[in-house]
């Protein structure tokens, strides 16, 4: 059953009232038309004792309790795909299209097309796996044993609505592999053994782990053992982890019931799998870590690269460095062997920690180049939390102020002390002569001068002696503006309608005069799509541009465009200038301030011109 079908049902169950189609479409990231199709399909093919009622003016409401859903034999491609792969794993060698088609009650042609689709999916996600097809012989799945299991496990993630359906689903999909009674005892057995692990307590995670166990036991019983393709375990003292203890206990005891001898390598792989399902790690979780020198050097190098990009001392922050090392040391093997890293908070992280996620992408990009470790989106989400924590510590000095003393040196020093008392997030420099270095002075966030100054900028406050209350009000207004509105104006705006994401990107790049950044923009999207929430995407390149200053381009779509994981109607593209990443990071924070202000978000989406968009941002009420 499709995940979005379940989310739609859960949404209607929670509301207990009519929901407009547009609201459902926005939450699910689909079109209004898709909502109508989903409702029709659910009513006709899934719901038994309940029904989704439709009212032209009010929207949709769920009538009755969802106690059960219909299960049709292999009626969707996703479900056929699971059974096709299951047949391929169970076959001793070749299996014909006719044999699969006869078992699934579909035509040979349908199965052939399905196999082609499956092959395409495998090529994109699994490095050491492929489907081989030979005329008069049939097809077979060849390659890495662990990737075969992970492929089938990923296809078995069919979320259901309650515990009964959860058991029924597993029993249905793994029929002939495990009896329903054995399945129930296995689940209870696992839940008891894994009580001390930081694994999410939800049916999807439990289903995934049980699926992996069922598949592994089936393959081990057929003498298909995972490859021991790593030289040593010096990356992590895996045997000292809680996951290893649990994996060993479960596999030995369960294997004993099935009269199966469990090789040590299978316990190690199951340990990796359990690690991949954990939420977060802390130093006290395990007895000992062995950090590989390659990882240590790679993390330090990548942080130094970010030092230059963001003008921050990330590599000197011991908490950030050690936190990243510990986290990646734990996850390296699951990542190397293509284990799916569970992260149910990725959408929230991308929205709430925009700056941290932006830095994490840059970090992951450099780490991939330096030590050839590729981090998937969910893992980047966890890395973003470490960077966000650093930014919170760094924020204590995130507004730079220069005080030009002139003849009022003593008053200037008193002002410096007062500003440090009033604001915890300022870094203040005093300069006796304003002509000493005008270029460097102009780069400060706020310039306070005692007497006239040759620099003509909006961030200059001139005082004529002892600071007055009006002077302090000006500084306070500026500080609030620094925190809550765009400090950089939008450079390009369009409200043209686009149906193609790449054409929209090219339009914005052309508008900022940076079409050469197109490949870098796409590379960034391949790491993790830049849609966040509330119909917003913030595309940006991995590389800085040839521009001196950062540029921002905006596109507003009357009809939302699909971006990667949802539909968006507000696209804010950021093109970092040379040596201007600090400004780019601040823009990310300012975008977050738009997102968290629902009224402002509605207003900016109404803008019809560049001037109107900038004006809406600038004129909103200041908030402290």
TrEMBL record:
SUPFAM superfamilies named in the record = Phoshotransferase/anion transport protein, PTS-regulatory domain, PRD, Winged helix' DNA-binding domain
Provide the PRD domain boundaries: 177-284, 290-397
Q: Which residues form the PTS EIIA type-2 domain?
A: 477-620
Pfam hit, one: HTH_11
Keywords (alphabetical) are: Repeat, Transcription, Transcription regulation
Note the PANTHER family from the entry: CRYPTIC BETA-GLUCOSIDE BGL OPERON ANTITERMINATOR, TRANSCRIPTIONAL REGULATOR MTLR
Name of the protein this chain belongs to: PRD domain-containing protein
Q: Which organism is it from?
A: Enterococcus xiangfangensis
């Amino acid at each position: 059953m499709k995940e979005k079908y379940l989310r739609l049902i859960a949404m209607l169950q929670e509301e207990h009232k009519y929901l407009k189609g547009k609201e459902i479409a926005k939450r699910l990231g689909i079109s209004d038309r898709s909502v109508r199709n989903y409702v029709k399909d659910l009513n006709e093919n899934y719901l038994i004792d309940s029904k989704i009622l439709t009212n032209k003016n009010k929207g949709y409401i769920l009538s009755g309790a969802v106690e059960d859903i219909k299960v049709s034999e292999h009626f969707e491609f996703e479900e056929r795909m699971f059974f096709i792969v299951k047949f391929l794993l169970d076959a001793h060698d070749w299996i014909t299209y006719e044999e699969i088609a006869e078992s699934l009650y579909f035509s040979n042609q349908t199965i052939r097309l399905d196999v082609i689709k499956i092959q395409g999916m495998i090529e994109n996600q699994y490095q050491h796996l492929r489907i081989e097809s030979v005329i008069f012989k049939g097809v077979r799945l060849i390659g890495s044993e662990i990737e075969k299991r992970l492929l089938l496990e990923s296809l078995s993630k069919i979320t259901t609505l309650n515990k009964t359906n959860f058991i029924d689903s597993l029993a249905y999909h793994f029929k002939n592999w495990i009896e329903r009674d054995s399945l129930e005892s296995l689940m209870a057995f696992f839940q008891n053994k894994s009580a001390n692990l930081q694994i999410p307590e939800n049916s999807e995670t439990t289903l995934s782990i049980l699926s992996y166990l069922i598949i592994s036991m089936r393959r081990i019983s057929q003498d298909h053992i995972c490859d021991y393709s790593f030289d040593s375990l010096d990356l992590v003292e895996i045997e000292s982890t809680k996951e290893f203890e649990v994996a060993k206990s479960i596999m030995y005891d369960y294997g004993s019931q099935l009269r199966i001898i469990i090789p040590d390598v299978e316990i190690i792989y199951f340990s990796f799998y359990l690690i991949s399902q954990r939420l977060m790690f802390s130093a006290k979780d395990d007895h000992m870590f062995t950090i590989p020198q390659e990882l240590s050097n790679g993390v330090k190098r990548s942080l130094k690269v970010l030092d230059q990009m963001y003008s921050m001392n990330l590599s000197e922050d011991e908490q950030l460095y050690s936190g990243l090392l510990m986290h990646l040391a734990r996850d390296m093997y699951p990542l190397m062997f293509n284990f799916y890293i569970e992260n149910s908070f990725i959408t929230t992280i991308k929205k709430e920690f925009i700056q941290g996620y932006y830095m994490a992408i840059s970090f992951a990009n450099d780490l991939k180049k330096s030590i050839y470790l590729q981090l998937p989106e969910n893992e980047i989400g966890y890395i973003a939390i470490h960077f966000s924590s650093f930014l919170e510590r760094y924020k204590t000095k995130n507004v730079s102020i220069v005080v030009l003393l002139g003849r009022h040196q003593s008053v200037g020093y008193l002002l410096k002390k007062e500003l440090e008392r009033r604001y915890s997030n300022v870094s203040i420099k005093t300069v006796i002569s304003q002509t000493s270095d005008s270029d460097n002075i102009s780069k400060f966030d706020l310039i306070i001068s005692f007497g006239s100054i040759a620099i003509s900028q909006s961030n200059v406050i001139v005082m004529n002696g002892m600071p007055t209350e009006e002077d302090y009000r000006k500084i306070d207004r500026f500080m609030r503006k620094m925190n809550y509105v765009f400090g950089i104006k939008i450079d390009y705006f369009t409200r043209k309608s686009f149906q193609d994401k790449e054409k929209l990107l090219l339009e914005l790049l052309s508008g900022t005069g940076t079409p050469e950044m197109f490949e870098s923009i796409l590379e960034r999207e391949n790491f993790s799509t830049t849609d966040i929430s509330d119909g917003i995407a913030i595309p940006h390149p991995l590389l800085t541009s040839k521009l001196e200053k950062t540029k921002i381009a905006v596109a507003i779509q009357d009809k939302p465009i699909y971006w990667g994981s949802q539909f968006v109607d507000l696209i804010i593209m950021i093109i970092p200038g040379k040596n201007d990443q600090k400004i780019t990071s601040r823009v990310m924070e300012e975008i977050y301030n738009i997102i968290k202000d629902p009224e402002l978000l509605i207003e900016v989406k109404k803008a019809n011109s560049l001037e109107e968009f900038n004006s809406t941002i600038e004129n909103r009420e200041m908030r402290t």
